[in-house]
């Protein structure tokens, strides 16, 4: 089975061809970093236009590189949400047109499900159920992944996502956009104990996250002029990691029967984050699984793979009039948590 995947929910335009036996036959990603850099963040209208310009040539390229045509594909999978709605619509409408023209099934994929199942694309031995820390620019959640389409959210952020905190720290330290990798690079040369920063919600009963107070403290530390930027970056990264560890540990206390701790999403590309979580998993006697960094940040292979998993699990194809969704929680039964700017 060969599935074409399309991703356009934020600032990466991507297409990929993936087989049911976990081969990424071809993939292409066009980053929009240059287009958004002058604004220090993703501008939705610019993103939507860039997706519209770049997507069709990218799809042509992966088909050409793989030496196949649409007729050789068994399904067309595209992110249908959550994300910036203009970009999601570009990808979904394109997928609908291709599915209709080729008379192949359309698979409307939840972007978060793409992240959640991506570790199984990288690791055939990863079985359900597993504990998943999903850490990206828009989300910070702890999920019990029971099976394809079965996700129980145990915790989420009550304010900012952890990737957002990395991006804002980068902005405060004038490191440019995108921020996460830049903070990681600068932090490598700094002292993680140099600046005293808060660890919001550390030790609290519910395993939820909070990063807004940490970001404000970074701003005050930078404004004070007392600290080297590398020390601020390292201290921020250290505080963020301690929060992730403590909260993940708390959630694991509530999950029986899982064999693995899995991390996915853009922040999972961070080496220190991976090493810290690996230590936590080892201490709990759990396997640790993290996809290679290129599968952690947004990509289309994970969308194609989620489509393959859904088909294999017996989920039906989606109708051609399915709508794009700006918000689409993985666990619809999860209770909203109190706090400003709750992320879906
Ligand atoms: O999953 P992703 O590519 O897009 C979303 O769905 O949000 O995640 C992007 C986020 C950004 O906030 C980015 O700064 C962060 O992941 N990120 C990192 C690193 N690479 C990407 N954060 C920390 N360290 C990194 N190396
Ligand atoms: Zn993502």
Q: What's the CATH C level of the largest domain?
A: Alpha Beta
Distinct ligand kinds? 5'-O-[(R)-(carboxyoxy)(hydroxy)phosphoryl]adenosine, zinc ion
Into which percent range does the helicity of residues fall? 40-55%
Stated plainly, the CATH topology of the largest domain is called Nucleotidyltransferase, domain 5
Give a quick account of the main beta sheet: strands, pairing sense, barrel closure: 5 strands, mixed
Kindly estimate the percentage of residues that lie in beta strands according to DSSP: 15-25%
Count of separate DSSP helical elements: 11
The total tally of domains equals 2
What would you call the structural class? alpha/beta
Order of helices and strands: EEEHHEHEHEEEHHHHEHEHH
Q: What's the arrangement of strands in the largest beta sheet? A: 3-2-1-4-5
Q: Give the overall average pLDDT.
A: 96
Our Rg estimate from Cα atoms comes to 20 Å
How many strand elements? 10
User: Uncertain segments of ≥5 residues (pLDDT<50)?
Assistant: 340-344
The shape is globular
Going by CATH, the architecture of the largest domain would be 2-Layer Sandwich
Secondary structure elements and their pairing?
Blueprint: E1 2-7, E2 12-19, E3 24-31, H1 33-36, H2 44-66, E4 75-81, H3 85-102, E5 106-110, H4 111-122, E6 130-135, E7 140-147, E8 150-155, H5 162-172, H6 179-187, H7 212-224, H8 229-253, E9 260-264, H9 271-283, E10 287-289, H10 293-296, H11 301-312
Parallel strand pairs: 1-4, 4-5, 6-9, 9-10
Antiparallel strand pairs: 1-2, 2-3, 6-7, 7-8
Helix pairs in contact: 2-3, 4-11, 5-6, 5-7, 5-8, 6-8, 7-8, 8-9
Bound molecules: 5'-O-[(R)-(carboxyoxy)(hydroxy)phosphoryl]adenosine and zinc ion (ZN).
Zinc ion (ZN) binds next to helix 4.
